[in-house]
């Protein structure tokens, strides 16, 4: 058993003074010794933190007795060390934003929740549409087999993408999934409001699916993108494990992500080890040229 844990969790719940709560929560997390990133908004809390087993237990215990957060479901992953450098608790206007004038409240409108085995079974039904509720770069390193790749690089682009691409499928059975479930709560609610008749979401997300003893991550190809130092984590624990990520330059299989060396680009892209060396971390010749020019101008 490893001595560190990473917790992933969220809860949609009405918070009166989210700025004050964020401040108080930061002090608590620092006192315990956790590291990570927590967002607190009027609509709830979303966090991923790392710490020793004892530290994460202390945090869970605190949350269990908290008036607002006692129903939180913690997803736990074992780790060798912290997965973050620092502890941030940030007040935000929304936990996940679709930039809608009339935002979705998942406590009022959300898709049916499917446990991992139910989701696995539903994926085999005829005429289902599986929608990945994450960004394109997350899909590219791992996703459910047969899922639609959303052409979005941020969550706020989903409403337009759905209206442009999915309108003819309103009568189909829709399955959505994301990393831990928080984005699907809004995404599935949005689909229902747009007139989709049969919308279900993977409860607890890919992370919970990967931990389920029955399905053991079956039908998930590649790895799951996560927003901490691990970058990707394995989900499929059967012999079916595959690499679906492809190098941005040469197309070879890879699961390494880097940000473009050029400061004004920083494009997050998949790259194989040999291309990383050869391209010096630039995502394109344009970025390399621009950076060389920039360096030259700084030395003049
Ligand atoms: Zn390559
Ligand atoms: Zn670039």
List the helices and strands and how they pair.
Elements: E1 4-12, H1 18-32, E2 35-41, E3 44-52, H2 53-64, E4 75-79, E5 87-91, E6 112-114, H3 116-123, E7 128-132, H4 136-139, E8 142-144, H5 158-165, E9 173-177, H6 182-193, E10 198-202, H7 205-211, E11 220-225, E12 232-234, E13 257-259, E14 268-270, H8 273-279, H9 285-299
Parallel strand pairs: 2-5, 6-10, 7-9, 9-10
Antiparallel strand pairs: 1-3, 1-4, 2-3, 8-11, 11-12, 13-14
Bound molecules: zinc ion (2 copies).
Describe the overall structure.
- It is a single chain.
- The protein is of the alpha/beta class and 300 residues long.
- The chain folds into three domains: 4-91, 2-Layer Sandwich (Alpha-Beta Plaits); 112-234, 3-Layer(aba) Sandwich (Oxidized Rhodanese, domain 1); 257-299, no CATH class.
- 29% of the residues lie in helices and 24% in strands.
- It contains nine helices and 14 strands.
- The protein has helices spanning 18-32, 53-64, 116-123, 136-139, 158-165, 182-193, 205-211, 273-279, 285-299; strands at 4-12, 35-41, 44-52, 75-79, 87-91, 112-114, 128-132, 142-144, 173-177, 198-202, 220-225, 232-234, 257-259, 268-270.
- Strands 4-1-3-2-5 form a five-stranded mixed β-sheet. A four-stranded parallel β-sheet has the order 6-10-9-7. Strands 8-11-12 form a three-stranded antiparallel β-sheet.
- It is globular and about 60 Å long.
- The mean pLDDT is 96.
- One zinc ion (ZN) binds at residues 260, 262, 265, 267, 282-284, 287.
């Amino acid at each position: 058993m490893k001595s560190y844990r990473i917790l992933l969790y969220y809860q949609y719940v009405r918070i009166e003074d989210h700025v004050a709560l964020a401040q108080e929560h930061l002090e608590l997390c620092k006192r315990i010794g956790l590291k990570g990133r927590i967002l607190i908004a009027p609509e709830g809390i979303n966090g991923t933190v790392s710490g020793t087993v004892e530290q994460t237990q202390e945090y869970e215990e605190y949350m269990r007795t908290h008036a607002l957060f006692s129903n939180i479901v913690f997803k736990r992953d074992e780790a060798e060390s912290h997965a973050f450098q620092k502890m941030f608790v940030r007040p935000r206007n929304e936990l996940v934003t679709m930039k809608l004038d009339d935002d979705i409240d998942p406590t009022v409108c959300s898709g049916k929740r499917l446990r991992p085995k139910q989701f696995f079974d539903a994926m085999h039904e005829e005429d289902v549409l599986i929608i990945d509720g994450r960004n394109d770069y997350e899909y590219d390193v791992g996703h459910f087999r047969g899922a639609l790749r959303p052409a979005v690089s941020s969550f706020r682009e989903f409403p337009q993408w759905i209206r442009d691409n999915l309108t003819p499928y309103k009568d189909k059975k829709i399955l959505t999934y994301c990393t831990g479930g928080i984005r699907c709560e809004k995404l599935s609610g949005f689909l229902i409001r747009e007139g989709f008749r049969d919308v279900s979401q993977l409860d607890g997300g890919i992370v919970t699916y990967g931990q389920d003893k029955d399905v053991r991550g079956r039908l998930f190809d590649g790895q799951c993108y996560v927003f901490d130092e691990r970058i990707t984590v394995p989900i499929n624990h059967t012999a079916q494990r595959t690499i679906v990520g492809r190098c941005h330059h040469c197309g070879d299989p890879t699961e390494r992500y880097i940000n473009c060396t050029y400061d004004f680009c920083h494009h997050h892209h998949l790259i194989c080890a040999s291309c990383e060396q050869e391209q010096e971390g630039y995502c394109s010749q344009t970025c390399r040229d621009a950076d060389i020019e920039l360096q030259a101008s700084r030395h003049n």
